[in-house]
Amino acid sequence: MKKLKNISIFGTSSDAGKSTITFVIAKIIQELGYTVTPFKAQNVSNNAMACIDGSEIAVAQYFQAEVLGLEPCYQMNPILLKSGRKSSASLIVNGKTVANKDVLEYYRDLDGLKPAVKESFSYLNKQFDSIVAEGAGSPVELNLMDKDLSNVYIATEFETKIILVADIEKGGVFASIWGVYNLLPQELRDNVIGVIVNKFRGDMSLFDKGVKIIEEEFEIPVLGVLPYIPFNLGFEDSQSLINYQQKSKKDAKRVAVIAYPTMSNYNDFEPLIADENITLEFIQNNILLDGFDQIILAGSKLVIKDLEWLKKSGLFAQLKSTKTEILGICGGYQMMFKSIHDPQAVESQEPISVEGLGLIDDDIIFYKEKIVKRDTYNIFGKDVDGFEIHHGVSKKYPLYYEKDNIKGTFVHGLFNDEAFEIYKTRTIKYFVEEMREKLDVTRIMKNISIKP
């Protein structure tokens, strides 16, 4: 095995581009002939994917694994937190839901999760030449540093080399680089091999003086200044939706996606964004829906809560009466039934039943045991390589429903097809090539190579 040192990707702020830089660095290392895997100790995201063994991990690590041609597994993301009721979160450990925990309780019990993180990292470390470990948020939130699994814990426990990623688009790039670097513990500063300045717009030469300041005055090597390139893949959070860009034909089909507060798995819509024959709009308030050709009810982490939001917003009444085609996916599918029953308080403080849209003649019942499954499904007259992640169950329509203008399914991945796979492959290839050209790969490899 041609062993390399492992790498931590630290952002100097949230949404600095850690997820994309992680797979770019990993892909470059792979193309140099090494085996490499992504990793994130703890992710906070409502967007999850089902692995082949029935475990679930955050979409970012799943996507990073796909880029590298790896079979995604829970070891790549051993801890996942999803939105819960009020101040709680759904805690997923090693791919399985174990509890709903109050945030304060979660932080109090954090040491109990470190063995799972350590075991997963150690497992991957034996399988691969190098691990590229994505951090979370900023690594120097001083009040939380002792509760940080993804940044300081990993970098300290496994002595990873550290690459900082700074988002110049936000402004304050010099302060963020200098501040994060100097607030790191000394042993971690010693392992910083440099900084990547990300999301630069315009003439790159305008930042030549900036590079000089960072290298000469801050004494931090600049590993590259990367341009802002729209990347409509691997959507991990709501910020991704804000940043997506779409090119559509004038006569494109207008599709509305109802974006309720805890919408989840919006990577379902990446194929639609890539399709120039579709104009996609995310709807967050009660606008008139009659002008759309199709309405999609997206996945939801908290189905009952988002259903109540539909009622308060006024969209519920529109959806009940519209003649436009409606498609429900997972949580959205469940909202389309006559009623939703939560007898075991899976989503609620106490057992509850609520009225659904009444578009499908059956009820949904929530069970504590979550269905997590990846498979090839035959739905709506075609084969879909997709997955399920849900607590709700319909006895009459356990997989999908179709009648008149109403369609729905528990299955994610409905829009993926061969054309989208070709688009995805080309987009990733172009993105990695553009980034590689701007990165100092020689300096990175020199710092992570282990001398014989």
Output the keywords:
Rossmann fold, six-stranded parallel beta sheet, 2 domains, 452 residues, 31% strand, single chain, 24 strands
Q: Topology of this protein?
A:
Blueprint: E1 7-11, H1 18-31, E2 36-39, E3 42-44, E4 48-50, E5 56-58, H2 59-67, E6 79-83, E7 88-93, E8 96-102, H3 103-108, H4 114-127, E9 130-134, H5 149-157, E10 161-167, H6 173-183, H7 186-189, E11 192-200, H8 208-217, E12 222-227, H9 238-243, E13 253-258, E14 263-264, H10 270-274, E15 278-283, E16 294-297, E17 299-300, H11 303-313, H12 315-321, E18 325-329, H13 331-335, E19 337-342, E20 352-355, E21 360-379, E22 382-393, E23 400-403, E24 406-409, H14 418-438, H15 441-448
Parallel strand pairs: 1-9, 1-10, 2-9, 3-6, 10-11, 11-12, 13-15, 13-16, 16-18, 18-24, 19-21
Antiparallel strand pairs: 4-5, 6-7, 7-8, 14-17, 19-20, 21-22, 23-24
Question: Whole-Å distance between the termini?
Answer: 12 Å
* Whole-angstrom Rg: 23 Å
- How many DSSP H or I helices? 15
Low-confidence stretches: none
Assigned CATH class of the largest domain: Alpha Beta
The percent range for helix content is 25-40%
Shape: globular
CATH architecture of the largest domain: 3-Layer(aba) Sandwich
Largest sheet: 6 strands, parallel
Number of strands: 24
Question: What name goes with the CATH superfamily of the largest domain?
Answer: P-loop containing nucleotide triphosphate hydrolases
Would you write up a description of this structure?
With 452 residues, the protein is of the alpha/beta class. The protein has two domains: 7-233 and 425-448, Rossmann fold (3-Layer(aba) Sandwich), CATH 3.40.50; 246-416, Class I glutamine amidotransferase (GATase) domain (Rossmann fold), CATH 3.40.50. It is built from 15 helices and 24 strands. The protein has helices at 18-31, 59-67, 103-108, 114-127, 149-157, 173-183, 186-189, 208-217, 238-243, 270-274, 303-313, 315-321, 331-335, 418-438, 441-448; strands at 7-11, 36-39, 42-44, 48-50, 56-58, 79-83, 88-93, 96-102, 130-134, 161-167, 192-200, 222-227, 253-258, 263-264, 278-283, 294-297, 299-300, 325-329, 337-342, 352-355, 360-379, 382-393, 400-403, 406-409. The protein has a six-stranded parallel sheet, with helices on both faces. The protein has a six-stranded mixed sheet with strand order 15-13-16-18-24-23. The protein has a four-stranded mixed sheet with strand order 3-6-7-8. Strand 7 and strand 8 (96-102) form a beta hairpin. Helix 1 runs parallel beside helix 2 and helix 1 (18-31) crosses helix 14. It starts with 6 loop residues before the first strand and ends with a helix. 46% of the residues are buried.
